[in-house]
Design brief:
This protein has 204 residues and is α/β, with parallel strands linked by helices. The protein has one domain (9-203). The chain contains 5 helices and 7 strands. Strands 1, 2, 3, 4, 5, 6 and 7 form a 7-stranded mixed beta sheet that branches. It is globular and about 50 Å long. A motif (LXXLL motif) lies at residues 18-22.
């Protein structure tokens, strides 16, 4: 059980974890899925903000050919981006190899529908957050030859880390529908002060 402190704001951060709870599209719809069970529980604890980072890829389709084709283009872009900045090494390749074995990812639009059905409301990122994310990315990639190929893409209030305009990872922010909406992401600095809050993190 989580040791939540009454009176403090609850923030939950999930980085590249939710896709592990997805099931095959042709699974029995009468059986609750792990992802739905988790999201129902999450809605119940009423987080003020729930941030989600996932692969921006369409790898959870019934058709094997679709999954293979989508994975081919996605990971080709991943390896190209790593090689361009000199980050293609044995550790990075081992990480991606393990990820490919568990290739069950979905696009941000499908995540948006799923989280909304669970009772979560998206907190769209605003222009200030976009400017800060872009500035940080430029700072990280400036030292690498080929780093100019990276960019921050905006779509429907979400951000994506892109390589030559191809989204690789998406980031969204949410809150439980019944939670206090006083803290809008539009006016919150990326990486700002955590303040007085509970923080639950789930990342690789």
């Amino acid at each position: 059980m989580l040791n939540l402190v009454p009176g403090k704001t609850l923030a939950v951060n999930s980085v590249l974890q939710l896709h592990r709870l997805l099931v095959d599209p042709d699974a029995d719809s009468a059986v609750p899925t792990p992802i739905d069970t988790l999201l129902d529980w999450l809605t119940g604890i009423q987080p003020r903000v729930f941030t989600v980072v996932e692969q921006e890829a369409d790898h959870n389709r019934p058709s094997l050919l679709e999954r293979f084709t989508n994975a081919l283009f996605h990971y080709a872009a991943m390896f190209d981006s790593m090689e361009a900045v000199g980050c293609r090494n044995v550790f990075a390749e081992a990480y991606l190899r393990a990820e490919i074995f568990d290739v069950r990812h979905e696009l941000v639009g499908r995540w948006r529908d799923r989280l909304a059905r669970a009772g979560l409301t998206q907190l769209p990122f605003g222009p200030r957050a976009l400017a800060q994310a872009t500035e940080r990315l430029l700072g990280l990639t400036a030292a690498f030859r080929g780093g100019a190929g990276y960019g921050v893409l905006e779509c429907g209030g979400s951000f994506a880390l892109g390589w030559h305009d191809r989204p690789l990872y998406s980031a969204t922010a949410w809150r439980a529908t019944g939670a206090d909406a006083a803290s809008a992401v539009n006016d919150t600095a990326v990486g700002g002060s955590k303040g007085n809050r509970n923080v639950v993190e789930n990342r690789q």
